[in-house]
């Protein structure tokens, strides 16, 4: 097979590991920078021009689309899908999971646990009731478009919460307000899901005095064995969002695991180093199986549609 990793930087740990794993499994590997792809759409069928040449015969793609290029990146993934390449992560699923609010809505419909969350349309004077809705202070206020822990604020008192909400609204920044899960003690769990299995899990503990456990904020990762409920929550979340590859973030609470978010391009470095598992290899194995399953299905369909030729 010819498998392309869609990545803007071939030197990133995740990109390098995926390339290695593709080659180790005996396939041809290439990096395609999605931001450098031109999409051609015409009656004869879709094509992609990359660095002046038409991309052809790509059997599968592994999208690694950063949050800052979601729109263009997912358009490129969609174009590959139209050209018949198997996407390890579907364009629609990337779009769905990027929107924190939309994903929480989908997860709640699937009956999964999450911190109680409220969203508002810049209503003046509504800050107080909004805070009450999530159980008062302390509370968490999050920018809808934040990543790496930036844009997540812990307000210790209602007054502090009110002024933070007012400040964000003044800047026309979209936010969600969330119940603060104190029992999590500044830690969260990342479960890495591939093809309906948890292939690795780690606990991230925030630095001393820090409620955010992000590794980018100085958090430390250790391998962890998930409880039955945590495993079920991780698998349920990935399934609800239509992701065959997902990094599911959860908090441990008195009422069981609470999902914070689901990442469609989860990084490999933290989880591979903490668990020692060859996660890139698991991703390639999944692609092999899925592509094989798909071509078997197509063969059967073809035979059913052309019975006299067989
Ligand atoms: N409701 C909450 N209660 C307790 N701690 C929380 C809560 N929400 C977030 N945190 C802590 O803050 C960290 C960052 O929050 P979150 O993952 O929602 O945003 P983000 O890290 O900016 O997003 P991304 O993971 O996409 O970069 C979490 O990992 C967790 O440790
Ligand atoms: Mg996070
Ligand atoms: Mg995220």
Automatic annotation (TrEMBL):
* Reported cofactor(s): Mg(2+); Mn(2+)
Tell me where on the tree of life, at the top rank, the source sits: Bacteria
Q: Name one GO cellular component term.
A: cytoplasm
What is one Pfam family matched by this protein? Answer: RimK
Output the GO biological process annotations, alphabetical, semicolon-separated.
SOS response; translation
- Sample GO molecular function, one term: ribosomal S6-glutamic acid ligase activity
Question: Which SUPFAM superfamilies does this one have?
Answer: Glutathione synthetase ATP-binding domain-like
**Which keywords accompany this UniProt record?**
ATP-binding, Ligase, Magnesium, Manganese, Metal-binding, Nucleotide-binding, Protein biosynthesis
ATP-grasp domain location is 104-288
The UniProt entry, under InterPro entries, shows: ATP-grasp (IPR011761), ATP-grasp_RimK-type (IPR013651), ATP_grasp_subdomain_1 (IPR013815), Rimk_N (IPR041107), Rp_bS6_RimK/Lys_biosynth_LsyX (IPR004666)
> Does this entry carry the keyword Acetylation?
no
Regarding protein family, the annotation reads:
In the C-terminal section; belongs to the RimK family.
Protein name, entry field: Probable alpha-L-glutamate ligase
Give the gene name. Answer: lysX
């Amino acid at each position: 097979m010819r498998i392309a990793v869609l990545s803007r930087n071939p030197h990133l740990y995740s990109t390098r590991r995926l390339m290695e794993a593709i080659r180790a499994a005996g396939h041809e590997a290439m990096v395609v920078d999605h931001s450098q792809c031109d999409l051609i759409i015409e009656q004869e069928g879709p094509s992609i021009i990359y660095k002046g040449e038409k991309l052809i015969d790509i059997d599968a793609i592994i999208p690694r689309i950063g949050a800052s290029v979601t729109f263009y990146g997912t358009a490129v993934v969609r174009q590959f899908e139209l050209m018949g390449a198997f996407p390890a992560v579907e364009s629609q699923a990337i779009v769905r999971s990027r929107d924190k609010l939309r994903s929480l809505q989908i997860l709640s419909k699937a009956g999964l646990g999450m911190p109680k969350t409220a969203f508002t349309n810049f209503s003046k004077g509504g800050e107080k009731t909004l805070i009450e809705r999530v159980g008062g202070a302390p509370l968490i206020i999050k920018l809808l478009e934040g990543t790496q822990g930036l844009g997540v604020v812990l307000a210790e008192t209602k007054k502090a919460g009110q002024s933070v909400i007012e400040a964000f609204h003044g800047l026309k920044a979209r936010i969600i307000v969330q119940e603060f899960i104190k029992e999590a003690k500044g830690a969260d769990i990342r479960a890495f899901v591939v093809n309906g299995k948890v292939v690795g899990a780690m606990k991230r503990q925030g630095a001393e005095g820090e409620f955010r456990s992000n590794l980018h904020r100085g958090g430390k990762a250790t391998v962890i064995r998930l409880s039955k409920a945590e495993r079920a929550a991780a698998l349920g979340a990935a399934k609800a969002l239509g992701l065959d590859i997902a990094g599911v973030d959860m908090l441990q609470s008195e009422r069981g695991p609470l999902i914070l978010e689901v990442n469609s391009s989860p990084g490999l470095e933290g989880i591979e180093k903490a668990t020692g598992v060859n996660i890139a290899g698991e991703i390639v194995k999944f692609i092999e199986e899925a592509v094989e399953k798909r071509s078997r299905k197509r063969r059967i369909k073809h035979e059913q549609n052309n019975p006299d030729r067989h």
